[in-house]
Design a protein that fits this description.
This protein is an alpha+beta fold and 136 residues long. The chain is built from 7 helices and 4 strands. Strands 2-3-1-4 form a 4-stranded antiparallel sheet, sandwiched between helices. The structure holds adenosine-3',5'-cyclic-monophosphate. Adenosine-3',5'-cyclic-monophosphate binds next to loops.
């Protein structure tokens, strides 16, 4: 079973969309293996998004990701990474297919409601960033 990380981002938590997003996730067959509500420090956000360091949107992304609570969720399913990316839709909500999470709940390319791991390897790394094996 493949593992992937969903993060319900500060804009979606603030707008009370945690339940709406989790319903879409479980309805397409994901198992929620671990979950919590937390708030990232700037250092934690910079580490998590280290691959984007130096990009023009990096500092703004850190401001946004530390602006409120987030809900990281470790998910399992066959083809978990690809399926989560499908139900999230394109990074930019304006380009995301109708009915996808970012189309429904995102408001800009930055404030896009949710994050999903982009590869099976990153699924392992990113779930381990938030959860220890004892929590599964
Ligand atoms: P996410 O899937 O979490 O991965 C990196 C995040 O950076 C992305 O979602 C957006 O929140 C943000 N992001 C990506 N591209 C841009 C961009 N061009 N401008 C602003 N923010 C972006």
């Amino acid at each position: 079973m493949e593992r992937t990380l969903l993060i319900i981002k500060p804009d979606a938590v603030e707008a009370n969309n945690i339940g709406n997003i989790l319903k879409i996730i479980v309805d397409v067959g994901f198992t929620i293996k671990a979950m919590r509500m937390t708030r990232l420090t700037r250092d934690q956000a910079a580490k998590f998004y280290g691959i984007h360091e130096g990009k023009p949107f990096f500092e703004s992304l850190l401001d946004y990701m530390t602006s409120g609570k987030i809900v990281p969720v470790a998910l399992e399913r066959e083809n978990a990474v690809a399926k989560l990316r499908e139900v999230l839709g394109a990074t930019d909500p304006a380009k995301a297919d109708t009915g996808t999470i970012r189309n429904l709940y995102g408001s800009s390319i930055e404030r896009n409601a949710s994050h999903g791991s982009d590869s099976a390897e990153n699924g392992k790394i990113e779930t381990a960033f938030f959860f220890g094996e004892m929590e599964y």
